[in-house]
Design brief:
InterPro entries: OGF_rcpt (IPR006757), OGFr (IPR039574). Strands 1-2 form a two-stranded antiparallel sheet. The chain has eleven helices and two strands. It is mainly alpha-helical.
């Protein structure tokens, strides 16, 4: 296929799809993925609380590991890859809990300031479930200061959220989701373009290990 590189790309795509399907049907492989995920979480000072839901919390040694993560921000690129891996290999439901954890740590608890932008710009938009992603964006907005510098969803959606009573702000507003679909989707397209650029930067960052 010399010179016919489209053919090679198509073959590779088919090969990858076959691999993914084989992986999803292999219970041992999936169990090993969870073990690997737990290992990486431990490296970042996080523990998987519930294998069914993907809920995570701080590990006992979180302070030491958070300091390492905050000092070596190229690890945020690895976390982006981990999130993508979870989404593609049958653990999509693990994505939102991990992103929510990082949003809470950065925006509410004031931890990990050096990876906050990555959490907002890349971690959130790696979540494949659109409903959960919108809830994460809303959670981020409600806990972000100053509000006028929040750029991860359209201003018209921010105004809707700002007008809600305090009690309502603490939950995802399902009644607003149909109104948000089109507007947020447009914004997500822009963020996804930036997200792909971010992926392209990984080679350089990983060489600095």
């Amino acid at each position: 296929w010399h010179g016919d590189y489209e053919k090679n790309m198509s073959y590779t795509l088919i090969e990858v799809r076959c691999f993914l399907q084989d992986f999803l049907n292999h219970s041992t492989a999936k169990q090993n993925l969870v073990k690997s995920y737990e290992l990486m979480l431990d490296f970042y000072g996080i523990v998987l609380c519930d294998e069914k839901t993907g809920e995570v919390r701080r590990a006992k040694h979180w302070e030491e590991r958070f300091d390492n993560l905050n000092s070596h921000t190229h690890n945020s690129l690895r976390i982006t890859r981990i999130l993508k891996c979870l989404g593609n290999l049958g653990y999509r439901h693990y994505q939102a809990p991990l992103v929510r954890f990082f949003l809470e740590e950065t925006l509410v608890n004031g931890q990990l300031p050096n990876i906050r932008d990555s959490v907002l710009s890349y971690f959130m938009f790696a979540v494949l479930d659109k409903k959960k992603r919108r809830r994460l964006i809303k959670y981020a907005y409600l806990n972000y200061e100053p509000k006028d510098e929040f750029v991860w969803c359209p201003k018209k959606i921010q105004k809707l959220w700002s007008k809600q009573p305090k009690a309502a702000k603490e939950e995802a507003a399902d009644s607003l989701e149909s109104q948000e679909d089109t507007v947020i989707s447009d914004n997500e397209s822009c963020n996804n373009a930036e997200y792909e650029s971010h992926e392209g930067e990984e080679t350089f960052s990983h060489n600095e290990d």
